[in-house]
Amino acid sequence: MSSSSLHCAARGCHNNWTKRRQCMEQTCFDHGKPRAECCGPPYNLHRIPSSDEGRRMWLKALNLKKPPKRPFVCSFHFVDGKPSEQHPNPEKWLGYDTPPPQMARRRLVRLPVTPPPSSVSLDTDRETDGITDNVTEGSTHCDASTQSEDLHMSDHAYARDTVHAPSLHSKATQYPEQNLVHTVLLRNERLCLMYTGLSRAAFYGLADELMPGCGSFPLHPNDQLLITLIKLRLNSLQGDIAEKFGVSQTLVSRIISHWLDHMEGRMEHHVPWLHRDTIRATMPQCFKEHYPSTTCIIDCSETSLQKAHNLDSRGESYSHYYGQNTIKYLVAIAPCGLIMFISEGFGGRCSDKFITVESGFLENLRPGDEVMADRGFIISDLLRERKVNLVMPAFTKRGLPLSEEDTTNTRRIANVRVHVERVIRRLKNYRILAQTVPINLAPKFDKILKVCAGLCNLRGDIIQEELE
């Protein structure tokens, strides 16, 4: 079996050796060089043990009707990322529901009941009443030094919030300071940038802006926002996020879904179409020299999409340029680097011209505007109808070399058009746009695009950062 044909044998897993090699050849967004030179592989393929017992345990865990002769399993299905002494077999995300373990029924032993002495019966009843009153009134009236964990509830973590629920009379009592995860994870600028892609001032300012309508969840609104941003910025597994915040995976999923809807509606003004005077006032010097009338620079980008089971959907999203299923979208930026427009997601087979027309981008243009684009945007006739000028690199004709003037203009356009590529690279710092989108997340992708574009604009102008 050649290395190119190795693939993970777990149900529903599409990881293989070819995808691993392609990922290592891609440019790392964090380091700016091939992943093979800076980051490790995203996963490894582990061979089935040679021992009969180990092979039997692996095949039992995979639960395949027709297992291959030499199955391989990728790192995602192991608790420790690889076979270890404590967890030698694949256990995670095996594509089927593991039945719950059958607990042996506990036998009850009846003990003879001896009546207590009459002299202490009243005191015992009084003490019992006192304990019942304390539990009824709530744990907020108990001294912290006298509280202890209820052993009966120690194995039922899901019930602890109900048994020891604090009073909900005020924000302060509803979210105790020691339970605010964002105060720990965002304790400095470096961590805040890593988890959210924003500065601490921008994060807390956004949290105050989004506070109304944040939803009735048993977490502080800042923690709810942080959960959503961690999903967008790092594309972490929901189980990992749930472990960080000490909540259930179901609650994390509900919070992310609610906040994507909430943020999309409240962050529209963070992706504004700037007035022509504002564009001129904020135009960098590199545009003023040769292209002072530029209104926006446009380009299309694509994000990998999990292959659909439906053949029609699979064909609509197949990108011949990338050779895989993708979601394609249009980005328009101002000369200063601010994202002014981002379209909804289209299938990867759609052309740049089709997306430009169907996305509604042309409705923002006014007579006298100037759009800078790549050669793939065959939209000069559409812009001419709106009295809008199109600036794009020159085409070669019949294999003849470009003239000296065309070569100079092409080089000048490339020098300033590179800023839209840098903005898209910043947009894909939110790894949910840089990694493969699962099919079940595709309905939320349009909202993810708009939210990530607004978050990018909160970081400031990209060209000003480079000048500084």
Automatic annotation (TrEMBL):
Top-level taxonomic group: Eukaryota
Biased composition (Polar residues): 131-145
Any one Gene Ontology molecular-function term assigned to this protein's record: zinc ion binding
THAP-type domain boundaries: 1-118
The keyword Protein biosynthesis appears for this protein: no
Region (Disordered): 112-145
Keyword line: DNA-binding, Metal-binding, Zinc, Zinc-finger
Pfam families: DDE_Tnp_4, HTH_Tnp_4, THAP
Matching InterPro entries: HARBI1_dom, THAP_Znf, Transposase_HTH_dom
Cofactors that this protein relies on: a divalent metal cation
PANTHER family assigned: SI:DKEY-56D12.4 (PTHR23080:SF143), THAP DOMAIN PROTEIN (PTHR23080)
Protein name: THAP-type domain-containing protein
